[in-house]
Amino acid sequence: MSSLPKIAWIGLGIMGSPMSENLVKAGYDVTGYTLEQDKLDRLAAAGGTAAASIAEAVRDADVIITMVPASPQVEAIAYGPDGILAHARPGALLIDMSSITPQTSVDLAKAAAEKGVRVLDAPVSGGEAGAIEAVLSIMVGGEQADFDEAEPVFEALGKTIVLCGPHGSGQTVKAANQLIVAVNIQACAEAVVFLEKSGVNLKAALDVLNGGLAGSTVLTRKKDNFLQRDFKPGFRIDLHHKDMGIVTDAARTVGAALPVGAVVAQLVASLRAQGDGGLDHSALLRAVERLSGAQV
Fold it and tell me: Which UniProt keywords are listed (predicted)?
């Protein structure tokens, strides 16, 4: 019998599927639940176990990990008679790796404590590629002892793993991450349009820029998206729109001005309004092209 904790995984989307599979590869017993049968079949094919309900998935789990799109989905799977808190055993550790509002994480930790369930908020950065390669950055909020217990699990999923403070801190840092990423992508998109309209060899230009101070993980990861106009979603505009709402709202609450972030949030919203919400966030390039007179 394995001495590793038994894991329940709720949410097997673009990020959740490869992350749960990496835990299986690391030797963990993973039972998963999601609404899509094909995702359950994928987990089973990778060596995990498919559950028919949240209750079945979490009943015997030592660690419960959730990865769903937003706060409403976290609340839907956590609360109520069919939710996680109604069926998790006392002493279990619930790790929410979704990107949600800091207040949702704080409220969840409080509600879980009344059931004897411990909670960490642990959103991630790195996109689909980072999930597949198990090189995610994981920003965590919660108690030190719970973080220490979860750290081996995190190490199977990512490379940069940091406890950022009490409950909600992971989500606050993730909101800042999404602000930086969106502004970075927007700057890259504007540079691409400027370079192309100037007649410069775009590939050569991006290569040399990425080798200097203008270089970034965003440019490294998204360079081919820009060059090939390949906007297959690794992280959808719809989700980044949600995240920009989180950071602008949280910033307003604490009195922080986000002048550039606010503009980029509107550009993300406009792209979504034009029907591009299902595309990768590198499709911010399409918005710049439209503003520059291109028909896209």
Answer: NAD, Oxidoreductase
> Which pTM was predicted?
0.92
CA–CA gap between residue 240 and residue 108 (Å, rounded):
23
- In angstroms, rounded to a whole number, what is the distance separating the alpha carbons of residues 29 and 242? 32
pLDDT tens, residue by residue, 70-84: 999 999 999 999 999
d(CA 104, CA 75): 8
Q: What is the CATH number of domain 171-290?
A: 1.10.1040.10
What are the boundaries of each domain within the chain? 4-165, 171-290
Residue 212 DSSP label? S
d(CA 140, CA 172): 10
Tell me if residue 115 is catalytic.
no
Helix (H) or strand (E) holding 7: strand 7-10
Tell me the C-alpha distance between 264 and 251, whole Å: 15
Q: Does position 1 have pLDDT exceeding 70, yes or no?
A: no
Give the separation between CA 94 and CA 72, rounded to whole angstroms: 17
- Average pLDDT over the chain, rounded to whole? 97
DSSP state of 89: P
Decide: helix, strand or coil at residue 193. Answer: helix
Cross-strand partners of 66 = 10, 96
Q: What is the rounded distance in angstroms from the CA atom of residue 234 to the CA atom of residue 242?
A: 15
Determine whether domain 4-165 maps to CATH 3.40.50.720. Answer: yes
Residue-wise pLDDT for 244-268, tens only, equals 999 999 999 999 999 999 999 999 9
Given the residues 39, 174, 222, 242, the one annotated as active site: 174
Tell me whether domains 4-165 and 171-290 share a fold. no
- Are 111 and 83 spatial neighbours (Cβ–Cβ below 8 Å)? no
**What is the C-alpha to C-alpha distance for residues 164 and 225, in angstroms, rounded to an integer?**
32
| Dist CA 97 CA 218 (whole Å) | 21
At 113, list the tokens: 């404590």
